[in-house]
Amino acid sequence: MLKSLTRYITLPARMLGKLVRGEKLFVQVLSKESWDRDFQSGRWDQLHSKHLGSGNMAVIAHLLLFLSDNKSKRLLDVGCGNGALLRTLEALRQQFEYVGTDISSVALNQLSKAHPSATTICTNMLDVDTIPGDFDFVLFSECLYYVDYEAAVQRYRTKVRPNGFVIVSMHGRGSRRILWSTISRHFNEVLSFTIRENQSDTQWTIKAYQYR
């Protein structure tokens, strides 16, 4: 009984601690070493198999194709991991000028082996100055809950070309509403999709924005 009560007391205390330190709630900060171990162990390989054709990657890829409308296609994939989106785009035989960034050098090495022509940059998500140029599309797929999400969307404003788009994908419900509400203050919403994969009962929300 005491152990059960302690669990409910500790959770608000952790949240209070984040507020005292000026940190965002519902953010899980992980080290580079932790991400490297995950990719080395194959934990995220499911993005290349399980969800490739039926999850958020397929919707993001088709959304990119729709919004590009045969115009320039310079794409920045923030927190790209080992290249699930790039593999999806290649399966659709669509070419983008692709730049992928990630904190994990292991993930980027895996991406580069599979896609030698891709440009990759090993960097912290908030270090936008390490990314040269600007883009027609900036994608945040399943990565904003590992960083100060409002700071991220503010800093990447300089990376989006006039009339360019920001695409955000997040899975789950509940606390995600707070993230969506916070970042949406900086954008005008263009398109929005909610999809669910029946086999895993995973739900994603995917939105295309333009900066206000």
Describe the protein in words.
It contains eight helices and seven strands, in the order H-H-H-H-E-H-E-H-E-E-H-E-H-E-E. It is of the alpha/beta class and 212 residues long. The chain has one domain: Vaccinia Virus protein VP39 (Rossmann fold). The chain has a seven-stranded mixed β-sheet with strand order 3-2-1-4-5-7-6, covered by helices on one side. Helix 4 (56-68) packs across helix 5 (84-91). The N and C termini lie far apart (51 Å).
Based on the model shown, name its key terms:
212 residues, globular, disordered N terminus, alpha/beta, Rossmann fold, 7-stranded mixed β-sheet, 37% helix, 8 helices
Task: Name the CATH superfamily classification.
Answer: Vaccinia Virus protein VP39
What gross morphology would you assign? globular
What count of structural domains? 1
Rg, Cα atoms, Å: 18 Å
Round the mean pLDDT to the nearest integer and report it.
84
Biggest sheet overview: 7 strands, mixed
Write down the CATH class. Answer: Alpha Beta
Q: What order do the helices and strands follow?
A: HHHHEHEHEEHEHEE
Strands side by side in the biggest sheet:
3-2-1-4-5-7-6
Number of helices: 8
Which parts are unreliable, with pLDDT below 50 for 5 consecutive residues or more?
1-23
Helix content: 25-40%
The CATH topology = Rossmann fold
